[in-house]
Sequence to fold (83 residues):
Amino acid sequence: MTPAAIATPTKESPLLFEGLTWREFKAIEQLLDRPGYRLSFLDGILEIRRMPGEPHETVKERLGALLELYLPWQGLTLLQLGQ
Fold:
């Protein structure tokens, strides 16, 4: 693996590292095993992406609450299936 500066990925653009082996990926995966980051690995390329945080969850909860009020008022059934 080539040395690279460690930077925090933005929500819009992920960090990409090329030329990694599966063993190197698994080592990095253990180091970055924490909430808020998603790792993807394909054909020697590691992608590190930040996941939406608290602001995203707040908006999601408020939209859900509005839909729970609005849909029955319109005579529609709301079926919640998961995330």
